[in-house]
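Entry type: protein chain
Record version: 2
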Amino acid sequence: MTITDAIIIAIVEGLTEFLPVSSTGHMIITSSLLGIQKDEFTKLFEVAIQFGAILSVIILYWRRFFQFHRWQFYIKLLIGVIPALLLGFLFSDKIDAMLESPTTVAVAMLAGGIVLMFIDSMFKNAKTESDDQITYTQSFITGIWQTIAMIPGVSRSAASIIGGMSQKFTRNLAAEFSFFLAVPTMFAATAYSVFVKKWSGNGGIERKGYELILESNDNLIAFIVGNIVAFVVAMLAIRFFINYLKIYGFRIFGLYRILAGIILLVLIFTGVIKG
């Protein structure tokens, strides 16, 4: 992976992580078009740059995260992330196997796109307008919805937003709570990949993620630059998303997902990407 490749993938991650369009699907398409070999470092990199995206949420919503007297907020996030942590721990190997299936990603992108086309009309009469009004039960149910995103291509953002709207959240609150849930969820996934999971390094020797990052200067530079780029782009994407939702809703994201899913299927069936 070159620095240019790392920057492009980080831009894709930053743009798509918090939009309901599937960052996994877009990174598969991008890697294929760039001809990036899916070696162990590339797989680690695509997870590790989520750290930069996480920081963008904390910075943009720092008042929410650092008002420590609002301890209920942290409890709600903890309750909401429990389903993802539990299922991620139990089925991490199967999730990794599904990540190797672009066909699964493409079908999930199409299905999610169809749902987003109608989500604004499916969930009406929203009553919950701020995170202070969210109950612990609503947090847990939204967290259960988030676990659907363990199927690659579903989109963690889309799943948790749909979950929030099913609990009578306004669409803005559903999007913001999706951002908040992303912080502990993605932090856990990143920490596991960097400090716990073993990857094959040079010579086939198994190493932990941080050892693989430090294996060469190129890997380290790609990791640092990738996280910086993901951080900046994610901040811009979040601001755009919230402002767009206030006026237009989710329909355009549904149309976009359907188009992206079709493109991915075409790339698979034409042999550009192995399904």
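Comment: The radius of gyration is 18 Å.
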